Amino acid sequence: xxxxxxxxxxxxxxxxxxxxxxxxxxxxxxxxxxxxxxxxxxxxxxxxxxxxxxxxxxxxxxxxxxxxxxxxxxxxxxxxxxxxxxxxxxxxxxxxxxxxxxxxxxxxxxxxxxxxxxxxxxxxxxxxxxxxxxxxxxxxxxxxxxxxxxxxxxxxxxxxxxxxxxxxxxxxxxxxxxxxxxxxxxxxxxxxxxxxxxxxxxxxxxxxxxxxxxxxxxxxxxxxxxxxxxxxxxxxxxxxxxxxxxxxxxxxxxxxxxxxxxxxxxxxxxxxxxxxxxxxxxxxxxxxxxxxxxxxxxxxxxxxxxxxxxxxxxxxxxxxxxxxxxxxxxxxxxxxxxxxxxxxxxxxxxxxxxxxxxxxxxx
Length: 363
Fold this sequence. Notes:
Layout: E1 5-6, H1 16-21, H2 32-49, E2 55-59, H3 63-74, E3 80-85, H4 88-99, E4 103-108, H5 117-126, E5 130-136, E6 138-139, E7 144-145, H6 148-157, E8 161-165, E9 184-188, E10 200-204, H7 206-212, H8 224-231, H9 242-258, H10 260-281, E11 294-298, H11 305-316, E12 318-319, E13 321-322, E14 331-335, H12 342-355, H13 357-362
Parallel strand pairs: 1-12, 3-4, 3-5, 5-8, 8-9
Antiparallel strand pairs: 2-10, 6-7, 9-10, 11-14, 13-14
Helix pairs in contact: 2-9, 3-4, 5-6, 9-10, 10-12
């Protein structure tokens, strides 16, 4: 048992009701009762994505597994893809694509910036052999969000595939898969969905599924043509993380009952309150266009966020996230997922004021 609460942008604190669901006696993974759980979770996911005809696949993996599954099933060796990176997870798209020997066109934007849709359009115009655009919805390393709707319009107008890592943004930020012309959406149980870690979600429309039939990349565990035969019966091909599926299905059901637009509004509300009050206190933020999933506070030169985060964890029992890679020690990342409520928002502000504000202003 941990002696701290997680205020990081995933994995998130899990609602006790959702957590309790995973503690129940679990069914056999080929029993009809489990098929009912999987089927309901898939239907709720379609409703949340506003994509009634999408195929929903569940894999026992982190979100990165869902990213890899998408690449392995959509492409063949040598296919050209355009990857736009606004941080660590855009870079991860490139690392996976390189591992599968795709030809990568790479658009890298400054940390904290969002992708420029006009630059994507120009790259597609000048490179007609690019098959797909792979990008990030919410970049958790910087807190920035991309304009998915604008990018989707551009990609579809040129009849390319649009593949979106929405692992952090899914449920926290508005996303309308069909209307925004996204062909593949990847999610993870442990972010704003509010379940324990262990499952990734891949949603594919018919355009993406057509590409799956032509893919020649090696795969087995992540083979969606195998998974499709089981999906049609509301099963998974391999033994899944059954208890995580039970918890995630419960969380998705609660989100659906509340209404996804209400859930978006709640994330926007608490993220907005946090940032407004933190700005008034004297903190500054990194992203130009922030996601509702998290806030990212910048440290001035000479102030190490690692020391602040450690002190808050040890003295207050609250864990914020550090920056990643070259940003480690320069950022404090605060999640608004899972604990998006008034008490926790105010508590986060209270401890930041107590342990960080003097150092930030002094720096």
